[in-house]
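INTERNAL TRANSFER SHEET
From: sequence group
To: structure group
Subject: RNA helicase

Please process the attached sequence and return the structure record in the designated field. Keep the field labels unchanged so the import script can parse them.
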Amino acid sequence: MEYSGITGQATLSSPLPPTLRGLCFPAQASAAAASSIRTTSAVRLSLALSRRCLRSPIAVSGSPCSGPWRRRKERYGAMAVAALLRRRVLSPTPAVSSCSPADYIRCLVSNSDLHLMVHSSGLRFQRGYHSSGKFDLTDLTHPHMWYPKAREKKRNVFLHVGPTNSGKTHNALKRLEASSSGVYCGPLRLLAREVAQRLNKVNVPCSLITGQERDEVEGAKHSSVTVEMADVSTEYQCAVIDEIQMVGCRSRGFSFTRALLGLCSDELHVCGDPAAVPLIKKILEATGDVVTVQYYERLSPLVPLKSPLGSFSNIKAGDCLVTFSRRDIYKLKKRIETAGKHLCSVVYGSLPPETRTKQATMFNDDNSDLNVLVASDAIGMGLNLNISRIIFSTMKKFDGFGFRDLTISEIKQIAGRAGRYGSKFPIGEVTCLDAGDLPLLHSSLNSPSPIIKRAGLFPTFDLLSLYSRLHGTDFFQPILERFLDKAKLSPDFFISDCEDMLKVAAIVDDMPLGLYDKYLFCLR
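Return from structure group:
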């Protein structure tokens, strides 16, 4: 077998080995599916299991390289492959059950499933994943190889980068509207809903899929999803990833990395902050994709005010007060409405989808009495809101570990929502509630965003599933903890923060769930 230790790719050149023909399948498997695998003559697989590829001596620790030992190891390896193929037929895992048998075998090879199974049965390849001939499942240095379907394409990747209100996402969505099939991947449920409504409004049937809701439109070839729900097993003509700078987020960055590397589309439009461009281009070097960068300028002016708001009596219609906890959102809402001048809409990430949509719609409606918005930093993620002035109630936020100052990117992202192009507020303004916060606001708006140096990463289910099989346990928490502790990364990636995942894993381990369901619970 031709196998590259650099990329992990295998050349499928020889016939299916005799040891894999006439496989027996469980009664639960459909006859058609079983027959499909048994009779797939197009599958060209060179394995160490095939005698044709075993002409050279095989190193088996503590055993001879020929005779009954050799035949026994071949049988064990063939049984392992048969088990994997049966898993393909029966598995509820979308990534496993949706592909053809031929594609599945290729996927197994590129993910080194077969290499692991053969190695665990005692065989070692003449040329393995590493120079030692042993495959290390915790080696995450080539994450682009986790998505063989996307690697079969030479994607045209367009980076749309610029400040907020520059039209970058609008241009990407226009291309999505014109495509025969496509997917939009956004950071927020409210944003995904907004895009789905936009496409349906222009007679492009579009389904909405988030972690909380599924609104599937019959016959739709387009979908709008939160990035964690991106389907990397489906082929699209066009795909859009919004707010790509979140690839550097400690908790959610891995989802953006997965979408960037795994989406199988002819065109991939990636929108976000210019600070992400060097890293994205470097990551995509390994994929062989064609990358084009298009820079945008802001379409409407943004004016940082020299004086703070000072008093809530200075609130006016079109203002948006930004804070970073649900409790503070309702405190500010109560103080503003108690003054008797204005009524407030509220928007934050954990609001139910219908409520968020209704609140945003009422704020944008000129005939509504709700003419002031109190919101979290969720408004910084591309929501189309008619905001005249952004007012920071604080410049600190709790990030799960402690309170910290807002970053330059966060300040720019939120402040830029004032004065949306084409709205009734052509000029945006930004200030703070307290005078002491103004220096940080002004310095951040006048500084370039720091370059993003690393992207988040998290192992796929197939890797963790094989790792659990290797250690003979279905308890997810110890497997996840051990895997992450031993994981090896390239300098361009980091393992996303997994503290909450490990807590969830410890809880779901006590429930009667399969490993895949436990994995999904931890990701969401």
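Handover comment: The CA atoms of residues 164 and 416 lie 5 Å apart. The chain has 18 helices and 20 strands.
Transfer complete.
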